[in-house]
Amino acid sequence: MEYKDYYKILGLEKSASQDQIKRAYRKLSRKYHPDVSKEQDAEQKFKEVGEAYEVLKDPEKRAAYDQLGSGWRAGETFRPPPDWQDGFSFGGGFDAGDAGGFSDFFEELFGSGFKSSSNFRPGQTTLHRRGEDVHARINIDLEDSFHGASRTLTLTIPEAGADGRLQMRKKTLQVGIPKGITEGQQIRLKGQGGPPLGNGQPGNLYLEVVFRRHPHYQIDGKDLYLNLPVAPWEAALGAKVKVPTPGGAVDLQIPAGVSSGKKLRLKGRGLPGNSAGDLYVVLQVALPPAESRKAKELYRKMERELAFNPRAALGV
Asked: What is the dihedral of CA 116, 117, 121, 127, to 10 degrees?
């Protein structure tokens, strides 16, 4: 049996972090995937990359593998030391994706963790693989988060076919949108990911929340922003005006003498939660159109009587 240098297969040092291991796996699995790669040995390398990742991504398997020592070279004849597995269970299954069968080296070290205790017979090994976790996006409206909602979602899910290659199938799910969820958060649907191998558990489906563009509100985490048009006399004299919020219209007192860009906060009127977000109202002074004779006369009267220079602060 030949020794496998899993770090070398992934192009990593033994000190690599778990994030570095994950990134290396994703890069190489895309590079050598048999459906896209043109290299002659792509399928074999794809399997080796999957096997290396299966060991190094799991802290317990990695610690056990590292325990074998660093004196071995890839391809050397190898026999594991007696009782080297003491203290390790390897009972969590594996989910390295569409990697195919693992090598004799892997089976010798870790295969016993996947044997069926009820049906195992000498010379027979049954692998139980946890299904792939599947990641997708779900587009929701602001109102879905504000009130909570249920949505029907149809996804195309990758899974391994009988020949070991990826194939796509459609899955329709009813998804509950939690009240107060924010953009970027994930909804986990347990057991709705990729199918398992043997008696393994199905993978999970993770849905990343993305908000559709809203005609009135801008969304920042749990806070909302609303551009609110106000008349010149409301801005100059102050006024009480109606403001739309996702929970219904409320009254807002505008102080006298405000200008465009002034921001007023409605506490707790953003997305709900243990700590609810706020709604920030950004005032925008809107000028009445000078389309009629009377409107034009009013503007000229203001020009004569107010002696207002909006550029006075600029020295001009």
From this structure: 10
Cβ-contact 155, 171 below 8 angstroms = yes
- The CA distances from residue 237 to 38, 46, 142, 244, 310, in Å, are 73, 72, 34, 22, 18
CATH number for the domain including 30? 1.10.287.110
Q: Are residues 204 and 269 in the same domain?
A: no
In a domain, 308, yes or no: no
**Rounded distance, CA 190 to CA 176, Å?**
13
279 residue type, one letter: L
Of 179, 211, 243, the residue at which a domain comes to its end is 211
Residues 104 and 22 in one domain: yes
Residue-wise pLDDT for 219-231, tens only, equals 999 999 999 999 9
Q: Which of 158, 9, 154, 168 is nearest to 74 (CA)?
A: 9
pLDDT in tens, 85-135: 544 444 334 444 433 467 877 877 776 443 333 333 333 444 566 777 878
Rounded to two decimals, the pTM is: 0.57
Residue ranges of E strands in the chain: 134-140, 149-160, 166-177, 186-189, 205-211, 217-220, 223-230, 239-243, 250-254, 263-266, 279-285
61 and 19 in a common domain: yes
pLDDT of residue 200: 75
Stretch (H or E) spanning 233: helix 232-237
Q: Is residue 122 part of a domain?
A: no
Q: Domain range holding 170?
A: 134-211
* Residue 110 and residue 201 share a domain: no
pLDDT tens profile 252-301: 999 999 999 999 999 999 999 888 999 999 999 999 999 999 999 999 99
